[in-house]
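User: Please fill in residues for this 328-position structure.
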């Protein structure tokens, strides 16, 4: 019995140690889960902020692209005007540039001049034959179509039209226009550079937030891993705790059973015949079967039962003493 008690005490000691360790590991698991949640919240906040910065960068980049595109338009206009000036100088020197490399301003001016010349000839030259007039009209239609194609290009590039009949005046006009386009181009480039100087820190902030998000995500994964490992430890400890509890419960139930059996044995030993149901049933069966039943203890054959009659006859008569008196 002392051995069983010692084993039970040992199990309870182990159970207490296991429960203490289980509580500690649960606390570690909960702590890692809380750290993982904080890291996840901070990561999400950093990612949200990074997305906002990226949207701002995209918006400013689009704005800068538009400014750069405008600067390019001014640059193209300037280059086109300068090309026209060079061609006019070539005309003044008696040489004329031919081919598609000619500026649209020169091409438009030449086309308009040719149209005016043909229209004037058709209206004033009475010696034209019908065949020649039809040929001039066909050419005129082609020139008018070409003029209509060139006008949008000139208007798009904001290049002023010139009169090739006055080359010096045309050169001065074109130079002023080229200087203006160059100035506008520089202004747009300066504005684009200013926008870029505002965008550049945003790139640094975005990269920092991206790195911070990656760091917090890695921390989240690490804390989650530790929490999972701690949870696995909780599961294992809980299994051992349940085993010990089950063993203690079994020992307790076994102890209760032994005590109960002992008490029942004692009660059985102390019961009288009239309380013994099994004996009563056995006697009933014997009586019903016609058997005789003897109650009481064992009677010795040497013992004699006194006969009441003999005892009575052997009683001596009462002796009376003599009295003084008369005699018969």
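Assistant: Residues filled in for all 328 positions:
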């Amino acid at each position: 019995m002392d051995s069983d008690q010692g084993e039970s005490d040992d199990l309870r000691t182990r159970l207490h140690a296991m429960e203490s360790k289980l509580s500690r590991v649960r606390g570690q698991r909960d702590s890692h889960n809380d750290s993982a949640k904080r890291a996840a919240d901070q990561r999400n906040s950093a990612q949200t902020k990074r997305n906002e910065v990226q949207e701002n960068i995209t918006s400013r980049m689009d704005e800068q692209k538009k400014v750069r595109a405008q600067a390019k338009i001014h640059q193209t206009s300037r280059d086109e005007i300068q090309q026209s000036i060079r061609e006019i100088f070539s005309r003044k020197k008696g040489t004329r540039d031919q081919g598609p490399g000619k500026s649209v301003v020169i091409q438009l001016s030449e086309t308009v001049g040719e149209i005016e010349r043909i229209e004037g000839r058709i209206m004033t030259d009475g010696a034209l034959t019908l065949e020649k007039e039809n040929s001039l009209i066909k050419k005129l239609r082609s020139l008018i179509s070409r003029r209509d194609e060139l006008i949008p290009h000139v208007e798009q590039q904001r290049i002023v039209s010139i009169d090739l009949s006055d080359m010096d005046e045309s050169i001065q006009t074109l130079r002023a226009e080229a200087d203006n386009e160059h100035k506008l181009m520089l202004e747009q480039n300066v504005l684009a550079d200013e926008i870029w100087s505002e965008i550049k820190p945003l790139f640094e902030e975005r990269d920092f937030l991206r790195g911070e998000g990656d760091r917090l995500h890695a921390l989240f994964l690490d804390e989650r891993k530790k929490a999972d490992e701690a949870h696995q430890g909780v599961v294992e400890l809980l299994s051992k705790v349940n085993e010990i509890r089950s063993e203690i419960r079994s020992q307790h139930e076994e102890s209760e059973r032994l005590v109960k059996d002992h008490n029942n044995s004692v009660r059985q030993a102390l019961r009288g015949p009239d309380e013994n149901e099994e004996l009563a049933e056995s006697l009933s069966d014997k009586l019903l079967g016609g058997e005789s039943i003897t109650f009481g203890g064992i009677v010795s054959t040497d013992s004699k039962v006194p006969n009441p009659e003999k005892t009575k006859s052997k009683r001596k008569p009462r002796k009376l003493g003599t009295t003084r008196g008369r005699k018969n």
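For context: The chain is about 80% helix and 0% strand.
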